[in-house]
Fold:
Amino acid sequence: MAVISTAGLARTFETRHGPVHAVHGIDLTVPAGEILGFLGPNGAGKTTTLRMLTTLLAPTGGAATVAGHDLVRDPRGVRRATGYVAQSGGVDPTVSVREELTTQGRLYGLTRSQSTARAEELADRLDLTGLLDRRCAALSGGQRRRLDIAMGLTHRPAVLFLDEPTTGLDPGSRADLWDTVRRVRAQWGTTVFLTTHYLDEADALADRLVVVDQGRIVAEGTPAALKTRYAGSPDASLHDAFLAITGRAATPPDAAPVAV
Amino acid sequence: MTTFVSDTALVFGRYARQTLRSRTQILFGALMPLLYLLFYGPLLTGVPLAPHGGSWQVLVPGLLLQLGLFGAAFSGFGLLIEKQHGVVERMRVTPVSRLALLLGRVLRDAALLVFQAALVVLVALAMGLRAPLLGILIGFGFVAAMTVSLASLSYALAMRVATPQTFAPLVNAVNLPAMLLSGLLLPMSLAPGWLNALSHLMPLRYLVDAVRAAFVGDYDGTAMRYGVLVTAALLVASVTTGTHLFRKAGA
Structure:
């Protein structure tokens, strides 16, 4: 059953120099429980699509249903059923981990006791137990990322959106985070929609990849299928396939820009 | 409706706890009006500023609204910092109503500024202020209402601009003329005709006149009526603007 389905989802920005078509029309179906990697070069429309699917940005065309709720008519329903972890996270460094987790649960409508219990459970499952009473500023990069993911899961969403989840992490923490994402799906059956610049991440983590370029979907399939089709063999590198699809390398930026 | 109230309370609680963690912030905000009380107030004690009441009854209402003006107008700073940490987006993807996201914050600001206003009045009483209790309470009401309006606009501005470097000059560009044209420090009745006329275009002037009227026990004169009307209009316009920007925000 599809948890996300979009038809012609589009966004045009009006600028001084005329309209800019950031996303031309995305047709996408994501089945329940899938880990979907959403790939594309810079400026391809990844972030704009993600911001529409998470209700942060209103579409200017097309339609979408997320977890059974119409994106335009019922944004609140979509918000209730989804979690979103932005690239910059979303915790206040001066607040304790426990307080952020319980406040987050309550913002999603949990009662005080439910959100307290859920904070303990998430801390247990995501290896944050000893850190609950620390201030968020005291966490390491990898711990912060696990907390960000826990923040996105307080209300047991059907879908978890992750925007560039491992940008800025060291290789060890990246591998840990991949493992965390797999565990989340295994434990709760959560559908995961993630954008990434890293082809190794997409290859290792995603069941299926959707490649966007210039606001359109230009390829989709399992990593092995894309490699076979565009680079000649399932053992080829995803990098070669990506080059063949977009004509550009998916080089991650050195310093990740903080979304403001 | 009950969800709306509990959501607002939840957001209020989060920011109230942050404020309570920082005692210096609570006391520092009251510093400017206290300095005016100590070093400026005594200059005016013999000066006939108004037909009714003494100089403290003219000065203290001005200081209370000055406190509200500067305190509220800069409250968007906190939101700018939160934006950089991604906290604002994180809250905008929750099902909480956009109005609750705004109101929870501005009510914290109003509570803080009314507390600081009470400190100022206590010191003013020691310095020689005499005013009816009801009038002082009405004054606090105006401080709270003004804070809710101006803080809403300040958050709305903070949603639109990217950095403190753009935010601060814009706020100052509004605040200084607002302070000078509303007769916060000396009543506009002393002004030449053209300045007095100009000051009637500044909404804050009506609030200052109303609180000064309240401090001399004049609760149903023209000044109070205009003050209430202008405050109500400001509240509706600014809370609507603020909520709207929390709803759409920047791309």
About this structure: The mean pLDDT of chain B is 92.
